[in-house]
Amino acid sequence: MMDRRAFLRAAGLAGVGTALAGCSSAGTTTPSGPATTTLPSPVSTSAEPVPPNWELLRANVSGTVLLPGDSEFSVAHQVFNPMWDARNPVAIARCRTKEDVQACVKLAAESKVPIAARSGGHSYAGYSVPEAGLQVDLSAMADVDVRQDGTVRVGAGAKLIDVYTGLAKAGRALPAGSCPTVGIAGLTLGGGIGVLSRKYGLTCDRLESATVITADSRVANVSRGSDADLFWALRGGGGGNFGIVTEFVFVTEPAPELAVFSMRFPAGSVDTVLGAWQEWIAAAPPELWSNLIITGGGSPVCTVGGCFVGSAAELNSLLSGLKPRPASRTVQEKAYLDAMRYFAGGPTTSRQSFVASSRMLQEPADSAKITELMTDRTDMDLLLDSLGGAVASVEPAASAYPYRKAFASAQIYQKTDAAKATRATAQVGEVRDELGTLVGKTGYVNYIDPAMPDWANAYYGENLPRLQDVAKRYDPNKVFAFPQGIQQKP
């Protein structure tokens, strides 16, 4: 059994989120621009809220509706991070069909009860457990159907390992994250950084269409040709903002043969290794993805790992260009599914308490200052995931994901427990803010941080105004409002 930190050490990334989505196909370089769309009929703003009728919801949902008095309730609402166990939803709807989700949204709109979707349950801020609200559990909607044309239809409740397994059986691949229990929905909605991103783009770049239940309970089949503004917003606009996605259709690639690697460096070498790694990965071909993980302490240490689309011999040649030499280096050729399992670190169902945040590196950063920043940071990792390649081939305005030209993402991750959570939050905040002075006040919405200063601009950049406009048009009454929703003030 391996915990969350082990996943991060293996791959340096993870998806997260509640359950909404949308994205463009890889290689798109032209913004969709202001699109003419058929807008939903708004829910009346003058209607007074009515008390929620849970028995009627039970009658209208083919799955199960759980209430606080039910024996399963106290466990059923729990998500990956135990720090959010104290959240108290008023109901949980285990949905099986899009009609079930429609019934849930209708109730929430009429009664003004908060509503949030739960796919994998990895929302870093626990937003898939709405306080005094209705949790829409999509885990039963998890079909993975690979079609003859190379596209795959995926239910919004599917976990990454199930998606990878289904694709591998058909000889196909999708660029996505590493943690096997992360939901495809939240990962895609926030962009979807992964080990194949430099070669094949973000997860959202492979999205062809999505089925969304909007705030007026409409079933919207969105794509570039239908509800184009909503489709644009779902590609990186973050989970929970525009509706509940029930199904995705992705364009896939033939499953490649891969080579994976790991290199360990001695204590005291972080400054040198980080400086060299930044130059090395910036010049590397897009077939190579790499991460660098700095583990804080009195003398920080680092590891470098990654994935190459190609042979071990080709990879070894590229690795020889990284100086200084590592203390150890392993290289293994793996089939696509085996490589995804390698980055997952092994099967696990364990939960873990943690605090995390992020920044985006627009260009290589000062390695000496980052090393100093991680000194004496016990139980903290700083995970740098390389970007560029296919990610950068898409213009920032072509989808809602704004950091197309970023050099790397940086995740600040600290394992903790409830007793130490306040101190851990403060420590993560210190590193986040200091790192912000070095690389800019940016962030990755899939590592959403409740304490992130000016979070809306940090997560969405120049795409924020258009996202706010889309959210207002599709959800005028804020049915899907939550503390860091796009319509909320930062």
* Cα shape: globular
- Radius of gyration in whole Å, from Cα? 21 Å
What proportion strand?
A: 15-25%
Mean pLDDT: 91
CATH topology descriptor of the domain at 4-10 and 256-461: Vanillyl-alcohol Oxidase, Chain A, domain 3
Oligomer: single chain
Residues in helix, % = 25-40%
Low-confidence stretches: 1-5, 7-46
Q: Per CATH, which architecture of the domain at 4-10 and 256-461?
A: 3-Layer(aba) Sandwich
- What structural class results from the helix and strand content? alpha+beta
Q: Distance between the terminal alpha carbons, to the nearest Å? A: 39 Å
How large is the count of helical segments? Answer: 15
Order of strands side by side in the largest beta sheet? 15-12-14-13-17-18-16
Short description:
By secondary structure, this protein is of the alpha+beta class.
How would you sum up this structure, described in words?
With about 500 residues, the protein is of the alpha+beta class. It has a domain at about 5-10 and about 255-460: Vanillyl-alcohol Oxidase, Chain A, domain 3. Helices cover about 25% and strands about 20% of the residues. A seven-stranded antiparallel β-sheet has the order 15-12-14-13-17-18-16, with helices on both faces. Strands 5-6-10-8-9 form a five-stranded antiparallel β-sheet. Belongs to the oxygen-dependent FAD-linked oxidoreductase family. Pfam families: BBE (PF08031), FAD_binding_4 (PF01565). InterPro entries: BBE (IPR012951), FAD-bd_PCMH (IPR016166), FAD-bd_PCMH-like_sf (IPR036318), FAD-bd_PCMH_sub1 (IPR016167), FAD-bd_PCMH_sub2 (IPR016169), FAD-linked_Oxidoreductase (IPR050416), Oxid_FAD_bind_N (IPR006094), Oxy_OxRdtase_FAD_BS (IPR006093). Its cofactor is FAD.
